[in-house]
Amino acid sequence: MVALKGENEDFDWQAVSHYLIQKQAAVEENIKELELQRERIKNYRISIDKCIQELDSYP
């Protein structure tokens, strides 16, 4: 917060805007990573379910 204030103790709105742009980019990157993880987990579950079905189909 201190870095976002100018010399006269008011907010430096340019700094605030820049900070929010960086924060938004970081959040968007985290979302992409989480979506990839979700897709991998989904594929793992599908693969495991297929293996289970194959094992269950043998007498």
Description:
By secondary structure, the chain is mainly alpha-helical. It has 1 helix and no strands. The longest helix has 45 residues, at 13-57. The chain is rod-shaped, with a radius of gyration of 24 Å. The chain starts with 12 loop residues before the first helix and ends with a helix. 0% of the residues are buried.
Structure, briefly:
This protein has 59 residues and is an all-alpha fold.
How far do the termini sit from each other? 67 Å
Helicity, as a percent range:
over 70%
Number of strands: 0
What does the overall shape look like?
A: rod-shaped
What fraction of the residues are assigned to beta strands by DSSP? under 5%
Number of helical segments with 4 or more residues = 1
**Are there runs of 5+ residues with pLDDT below 50, and where?**
none
List keywords for this structure.
59 residues, mainly alpha, 76% helix, rod-shaped
Secondary structure topology:
Elements: H1 13-57
